[in-house]
Amino acid sequence: MNLKLYTNSHSVSCSKVEFILDFKSIEIDKIEAINNYGSFSPTATVPCLSIDGLMISDSGAILEFLEEKYPEPSLLSDHPNVNSKIRFLATLVDEKLVGSIRKLFGLVKITSHPSDGLMIENIFKEIENHLLLINNIRKEEKYLASNEVSLADCNAPAFFSMLKEFEIHFNKEVIKPNEIRIYEENLQMHKNLYKEYKRYGFEIRTWIANKLLS
Ligand SMILES: N[C@@H](CCC(=O)N[C@@H](CS)C(=O)NCC(=O)O)C(=O)O
């Protein structure tokens, strides 16, 4: 089987794939795509995985494929009910947390427009509400959906490192439930999750610095 991954080091959706490749020690051909994603990706987005020429461009579908093809170490459990929680939380992280924080990219180089401050304020509040929602579903687990690292955790390193960089940049703090603080500490103590947390944090810091210079 011929696998080729089109990826971009600044992309939050690609960060999920970077994490799973490292966690499962998978080595595949990677192409760093800068722009013109429409020339290879059916949805003009990255990540995009070519599986014998079949182009799959949804990070969730790519993760599920890699989990099936390389089952060890597993990012799912033996229990369908736990797996449904894993998939539900993975979707919530992508759609809610990452969905909201992505909006901050466009506000990094602040304009003099009076609505910018209010927009930033609202995005920070939105993130606080999403963290509460996730925390209520998560309950007492060590990681997001169970006591083991799972598919639900793959986008967490990028989200939390990005949040840290945006908190510094916008000089604002998100109020996090205590259990989420503990989760973030667990994430930073896990070898592979922390590696991606550091890598992506560096990418975002560099992105912000370049944007401010432009
Ligand atoms: N739901 C998609 C979202 C992918 C996505 O939006 N990727 C961004 C990068 S993080 C992208 O390619 N945006 C188009 C662009 O930057 O031109 C997934 O999970 O793969």
Walk me through the structure.
There is one protein chain. By secondary structure, the protein is an alpha+beta fold. The chain folds into two domains: 3-69, 3-Layer(aba) Sandwich (Glutaredoxin); 80-213, Glutathione S-transferase Yfyf (Class Pi), Chain A, domain 2 (Up-down Bundle), CATH 1.20.1050. The chain is 56% helix and 7% strand. It contains seven helices and four strands. It has a four-stranded mixed sheet. Helix 1 (12-23) packs parallel to helix 2 and helix 1 runs antiparallel to helix 7. The termini are far apart. The relative contact order is 0.14. The model has no long low-confidence stretch (mean pLDDT 96).
Series of H and E elements:
EHEEEHHHHHH
pLDDT < 50 runs, ≥5 residues: none
- The CATH architecture designation of the largest domain is Up-down Bundle
Biggest β-sheet strands, sense, barrel: 4 strands, mixed
Predict the CATH topology of the largest domain: Glutathione S-transferase Yfyf (Class Pi), Chain A, domain 2
Shape descriptor reads globular
Broad structural category: alpha+beta
Helical stretch count?
7
Compounds present?
glutathione
Overall pLDDT score: 96
What's the CATH class label of the largest domain? Mainly Alpha
Q: Give the spatial strand order of the biggest sheet.
A: 2-1-3-4
